[in-house]
Each structure stands twice: as structure tokens, then as C-alpha cells.
Amino acid sequence: MKPENKGQESLPRFPESLWRGTTELPSFPRLAEDHTTDIAVVGGGITGITAAYLLAEAGRKVTLLEGTELLAGTTGFTTAKITAQHGLIYSNLIKHFGEEHARSYFRSNSESLEWILQTAGKLGLSCGLEREDAYIYSDVGDGKTLKELENELEAYRKLGLPGEWVDSVSLPMRIGGGIKLPGQARFHPLQYLKGLLEAFLAKGGTVYEHTMISEEVEDEDGLTLFTERGKHRIKCRHAVSASHFPFYDGGAMYFARLHAERAYALAFEPETDYEGGMYLCVGKPRRSLRAVEWEGKKLVIAGGESHKTGQSSCTIKHYENLEIFAGELLGIRQIPYRWSTQDLITVDKVPYIGKLSKDKEIYIATGFAKWGMTAGTLAARIIADQIQGKPNPYTELYDPTRFKANPGIKNLVVENANVAKELIQGKVEFAHKKIGDLKPDEGGVVRHDGKRVGAYKDPEGGIHLVDRTCTHMGCECDWNESERSWDCPCHGSRYTYDGEVIEGPAVQPLTKLDV
């Protein structure tokens, strides 16, 4: 199903983000021996690279460790809005955290935005950085969302935030109403972070890729981390988990306090001029828009179509829905890129940032809820301060050991009831297909030797079979058609078509089966 637009091209066959498709990144070796450092930063996205840069700049010996390749996780697949306008957030923050913490949330994200701009200028980075006004809006006729926007504007006024009400936008569409937040920004995140990485290396930083860190940690005479492959030891004084899902849980049960969602994006060349601004429809279906420069042209990134990871029967339909939306709104000349991403969301919607516990020098940053450009930068700055013993005014708000009874208990019950449902359903579902039913470049659950297994037939006809049982907690993974991956619907682990871990909390691959 595609919109009828003159000159419109079809969706790209394979997903690739514009950011990764337009950035040449350096490669680094796998850690192949025991290693000693002052600070081990685990995770090569915006949080990890920024934290490594800050700590190296402070004169510390820092090693950055990435389980796959740098910037191949959520940061490489973002829509890259740098903003403190995170949907309908401030009315809920006032209700559950109080006015002072709500102001702190705005200040902390706004300061991170400014820090990005200042750092890009300081390092002379050419990364497509542009100031843009940000808008949240409701569709015409959506009275419920309009009321929520009015409540959000009241929260802005109560907190003294610089938002203003709008009844129309420059896009060729009518809205029910919206809130404009001036002075936000957009950029090319990988070109920016490539610059930070180069500055980190220039200050003596060390990087290892394809180095998965296990959940095992020893804390005698400092910390000892272990690699999954080879069990090499990494001795350090401090460890930072910037790996999306924390590599070390410490009994905090983060798998129960976070849930994973996937979202989708298209970068398309519009037929109608796009006059600027960053937009987010906060009703349903949720839609996001922003401009980006590509090969001398202005493209528009359309995003949305969120769903819980592993809980969508046909993921390609999400791209098609965005294609219809973009075509009807602005028309489409071409679609050079399409991609999807995964985000973790905490039970109270505020990220977990800081020291995991009083007795271990392990720091975590997770649960950015789709706003990782400011939240990831904020997390790096908070953790860098904490490691150096500096006070940070936002430590209490983002403390990962907190638990807000309201809405935490309600959301905890809801999310874990969903996990239980998916765990049971995955064990009893019936597979109708056989291996021979699969077409080239098709995957799914098949019946093989009397069992339900995961199968993928590659374009050359080769068959790849896996046991779909997630190695984290035993849920059954589902086939993600558009990404050609196995996705766990319980806690968001993802695997390649032949079972290798793409992202956690799982650290062990799926079991490969004989054909």
C-alpha cells in the first residue's frame, strides 16, 4: 500500500540510517588480552563517547569498550532532535516529582543542548547543527490530546518555561492546537560524535570494538570486568554502563523497571518545500518531522509508529504507514533511507543516571525514552562529575536507585503483566510454515523435526535455523521482517538472523540448530 505521488519511489529494500550511510567511522580492534585502566566506559553511543571525552579531558585514563561497532546502536538510528521538549512531560513531572524537579528536568536538558552547541563550536565540528523551534501538536478533532496539550501549557506557565500556544503551523495541514518551544536544535549526530571521538583519542583514550562485557563483576581491590569472548579481565577503578541496557544489574532488576519500544523513520525528498521546525504529534498515530541536508538537497525525516519490541506482526507496515503520511503531507520524490531504532523507557518516564549502589563504583545511564541526544549528553556530564567527586545539581532527580510509588507501581505491574503474557503465548503458539515454504530473504517461525524453530532463508537459498528462546529470561523471540532480526517481546533483546546478539539485555547468542 503506497500513496500515489508523481515521481515517488518505493521504500529502500534494506534499512540503513542516513547518519550511518553518510559517515565514515574508524574501526578498532577487539580486546584480546587482559587490560588495566582507570575508567572503563562500556557502550559506544552518545553517552559513552561523551563521557569518555569528558573524563579524558579531565586527565583520566579511559578505555571505551563497545560490544559491536561504535555508533551502531540507538545513537546511530535516532531522529537527532536536540531539545528539552519531550512530548507531554512537564505536567506529569509536576504531578509525580514536584515543581522543583520538573524545572530541573528542563534546565538539565536545556543545558545539555547548549553544551552540545558549545562543544561543536569549540572543536570546530561541521555536523549540520541548526537552531530550530520545536512543536508538539494535536490533530484536528482529537479533543483528548488537545486537553492534554492545554494542561501541558499550564505546566509550562507554572514552571516559567518559554513555551507559547499556536493554532497553526507552517506545514500544509490543520492542527487542533500546539505548543512551540523556541531555540531548540538539530544536527548530524555521527559527524558530531566522530569529532568527539577524535578529540578523545587525541587525549590518549583507548577504544576496543567487538568486545562484549559480561554481567560478571568482581569488586575486590577495585573493579574487574570480564569479556564474553575469551574472558579477558579489565581492571579499573570506575566502570560506566552506557550500553543502552545496563551490562550489570546488581540485583536492581532493571529488566523489570524498563521496557523496550521500537520506532521507525524515513528520510525522504519532499515535493513541497519544508519551511523548517521540528514537529511531534502527541496524539495517535504519533508522528515526528524534521529537516536534514543530504547531497545538496533538503530531506525531511518522518518518524513514528512506535510499538513494544517483538510485538508487531508485520514491521514493514510501519514504514508503509510513514510513507503514506509523508506522501499525503508533502509528496515524495525519493526515499534514500529508512531505518528503525529501539529505546528503553523507565516506569516513571525519567532516565536512570548515576551510581548503581553505594558500595560499587559502577555508574549507569539508561531509559532515555527516545530523547537520547540531550539525555545521553546529560548522563555523561552527571556521571563524569560524580566520578570526579564534583557536586551535580541533577543527581537526585535522575538517581537510578529511586522508586516513585506513583506512577511506578502501576507501570511496573502493567509492564510485567505484559511480559508474562508474551512468555506464555510464545511457548504455546502453533507454527504452520515449513522450511520449504520460505522464499529467499524471508524468515519466520517454522515446524522442523516436530519443533517450533526460527528460520531464515538468505537470498542465495541458505537456511539458518535458531532456537528462538531468548537467552536472557526465556521468552520466545519473534521475526522482525523489516530488520531481518529476532526480537524478544519481553525485555527487548535483539539477535541477527543467525542468532548473534544485536542488543541486550541478553549477552549470549541464540542456539543455532542443524538444518
UniProtKB/TrEMBL annotation:
The keyword Acetylation is annotated on this UniProt entry: no
Gene Ontology molecular function: 2 iron, 2 sulfur cluster binding; metal ion binding; monooxygenase activity; oxidoreductase activity, acting on paired donors, with incorporation or reduction of molecular oxygen
PROSITE patterns cross-referenced by the UniProt entry: RIESKE
GO cellular component: a single term: membrane
UniProt-listed Gene3D superfamilies: D-Amino Acid Oxidase, subunit A, domain 2, FAD/NAD(P)-binding domain, Rieske [2Fe-2S] iron-sulphur domain
Keywords: 2Fe-2S, Disulfide bond, Iron, Iron-sulfur, Metal-binding
Top-level taxon of the source organism: Bacteria
Domain Rieske: 430-515
PANTHER family the record matches: RIESKE 2FE-2S IRON-SULFUR PROTEIN YHFW-RELATED, SARCOSINE DEHYDROGENASE-RELATED
Protein known as: FAD dependent oxidoreductase
Source organism of this protein record: Paenibacillus sabinae T27
